[in-house]
Amino acid sequence: MIAYKIIGGLLILGTGGYIALAVNRFERRRLRVLDAYISLLYYIKGQIDCYALPVGDILSRADPTLLAACLGLDQGHIEADTFSCLEGTDAPLPCMVEESRLYLEPETERILRTFSGELGHTFRAEQVSRCDYYISALTEERRKLFDTLPARLRVSSVLCLCCSLGATVLLW
Q1: Residue 13: its H or E element
Q2: Count of CB atoms within 10 A of residue 37's CB?
Q3: What are the CB-based long-range contacts (under 8 Å, 24+) for 104-113?
Q4: Closest by alpha carbon to 111, among 139, 88, 90, 84?
Q5: FRET partner for 46 with CA separation of 20 to 30 A, picked from 21, 36, 123, 141?
Q6: What is the pTM of this model?
Q7: Residue 104's CB: how many other CB atoms inside 10 A?
């Protein structure tokens, strides 16, 4: 009987450790998604500056791995229907933001929604300057997220492990 309790306690502790790893992976992915959006804005800025293309054409020419990173997907999970929100819609960038909102802070989401709403409605020089503004705003948000990342990782790990330890003690 005591062997079952020990095995059960170890399973609960192992589950808590696995959940801590999953939460840490999610927090790191949030930073990668923000990095991908910053790269996407640099790409959009370059395409507007050089070719003055509409946003839909710009995103259709973008690297699929960059678009997948913006959606929070791994490179191995890119499938044919992954970018279905980009095809057949007048507003592909707001659709991408909506698809990846799980990984975005509220302020970052607001910045991206504002950017996508303003994109394509002014002259080329004005669009390029707005791209610069939103790139700097997202870079500032990235800095804040990067600065708080170690504390968030520690807190989430400790909470997961303490909850599993508490459940183990209660069930003993």
Answers
A1: helix 2-51
A2: 28
A3: 104/30, 104/33, 104/34, 105/30, 105/141, 105/145, 107/141, 108/34, 108/37, 108/138, 108/141, 108/145, 111/137, 111/138, 111/141, 112/37, 112/138
A4: 139
A5: 141
A6: 0.86
A7: 22
DSSP for residue 119? T
pLDDT by 10s per residue, the chain, length 172: 889 989 999 999 999 999 999 999 999 999 999 999 999 999 999 998 888 777 778 888 888 889 899 998 877 665 655 566 666 566 788 889 999 999 999 999 999 999 988 887 788 888 889 999 999 999 999 999 999 999 999 999 999 999 999 999 998 8
Tokens of 162: 């303490």
